[in-house]
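Sequence in, structure out. First:
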Amino acid sequence: MNSILFNIAQSMPGFLLAIVTHEAAHAWMANKFGDPTAKNQGRLTLNPAAHYDPWGTIFFPLLAAMTGFTMIGWARPVPIEVRNFKNFRQGIFWVSFAGPLSNLILGTISAILLAIIATKVSVDWGYYTISISMLRDSIFINFLLAFFNLIPLPPLDGSKMISSFLKGQALYKFESFARYTPMIFIGVMFLSFAGIHTLGYVQIPAVKLTNYLMIHLVDLLGGLG
């Protein structure tokens, strides 16, 4: 139980900031393109209470933490009214990309902070170890959330980014593919339970980018004395 509580406490700050910033970024970009729907509903905020989803923000991430994994999940999607966009196609693309982009930025900031602490702060500092662990989790969670949402499957952000370039029959065929998405996710989960970890293909770029930034930023800052 102590291990589970420690895992939750270590992952929670990075997890909450990642999913809340993801949705707030969608809301901010939508407002920039002329759609104030999310802003008017109080979603243009970093307050977790405005974005939480019972399953994605509480149940699923706690289940992940209890089974030894880093907390991962989702927040309640912000409402978007594309008819309000000043530029329809650009609006769809950039509003969709804003969420993953915010996570890539947050992950990079977390990596810079980790490198600063690792190279400029004494290991005797009482919060040294936990700070390094929390920032490492924040890096991984943000990058994993970004890469997962860039998968071009409806309703993920990647599919909306692609749809912004399509029109006519091509757009219709692409959007009709959404009916197969639940079956695909169920199949992925079934294969994972069977020992074929297909979700690992999403984790691989997140893990590699996390390790790359940590190693090279620490080397860079350490070399600066």
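Second:
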Amino acid sequence: MKFAVCVKQVPGTTEVQLDPVTHTIIRDGRKGVTNPFDAAAVELAVTLKEQVGGSVTAISMGIPAAESMLRDCIARGADEGVLLTDRQFAGADTLATSYTLSKGIEKMGGADCILCGRMAVDGDTAQIGPELAERLGLPHVTDVIAVLSVEENALVLRKTTADGTIDLRVALPCVITVLREVAQVRLPSIEGIRRSFAAPVHVWSAADIGTDPARTGLNGSPTQVMRTFVPEKTKITKMFSGTPEEQATALCTALKEVL
């Protein structure tokens, strides 16, 4: 089977910088990490490859520095990486991102199963997987917590619902989005790290995958962010003196003022 995993690089620090003009997050590849939900998707794809055979391709839309993230996915068991990078892609919302990813996957020749993390921890929209499935015209299942079996033309999955869980069968090819508990992410092996240095990471531009400029980046993003800001952090220190009883009374008074 051919597995494709969509991965995203997210800020590896809580000190997020925002572009004052576009109101989008400034990506710094040196401080980026693999989105935790996507890391679980990579682990699941590698586990399924070990069970039934096949190949795993990690694909991402991002800045050039995201190549290091794809090589980390290879170190963890993926066979190759695909990086979609172009200034034309900058500032994309989920609609434009899913369009770009769909064009990249089409250039790859498609896949039997496309896996995505449920959401990105820096966006929390949970839209990429379903939008990608609609772009490609494939059935999809969200919030998957286990793959129970792999059949010749279908997967048997367990997913969460508002009432608990449900088991279902989805025809291949398909798109699934997974929760973090779907797999225990393993550390890369020394052999995997060595292999990641030589394994192919294909870097494709907008021209390479034939995207329409009107449907990518800011041009293709109907979502309009009116204002994005990092909350200001303030800290006031108060010192209490006197007897223990007086200090306790002063502390209670101060807490009442805050609460």
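Remark: Helices lie at 36-52, 67-75, 94-108, 128-136, 190-198, 206-209, 244-258.
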